[in-house]
């Protein structure tokens, strides 16, 4: 929720509606991209990889126990 709020607060700066200059616009776009990518990575990609690895190791454990 904090990442979404921060991205929302930086949108006017990224669009150029605020009084910021060229550096502020680029910084706002960079921060928004970083927050969006890290949030996506944390909430979607990491759980998917965890589940895949968990199933893989569980399968390997069953094979070892059967032999």
In short:
The protein is mainly α.
Would you write up a description of this structure?
It is a single chain. The chain is mainly alpha-helical and 67 residues long. The chain is 88% helix and 0% strand. Helix 1 (2-15) packs antiparallel against helix 2.
The percentage of residues in β strands lies in under 5%
The quaternary state of the protein chains shown equals single chain
Please write the string of helix (H) and strand (E) elements: HH
CA-to-CA gap between the ends? 48 Å
Question: How does the major sheet shape up?
Answer: none
As a whole number of angstroms, the C-alpha radius of gyration is 21 Å
How would you classify the helix and strand content by structural class?
A: mainly alpha
Number of strands: 0
- Helix coverage percent of residues? over 70%
| Integer average pLDDT | 88
Structure keywords:
67 residues, mainly alpha, rod-shaped
């Amino acid at each position: 929720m904090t990442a979404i709020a921060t991205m929302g607060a930086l949108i006017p700066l990224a669009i150029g509606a605020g009084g910021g200059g060229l550096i502020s616009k680029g910084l706002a776009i960079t921060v928004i991209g970083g927050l969006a990518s890290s949030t996506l990575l944390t909430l979607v990609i990491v759980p998917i990889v965890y589940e895949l690895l968990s199933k893989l190791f569980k399968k390997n454990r069953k094979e070892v126990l059967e032999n």
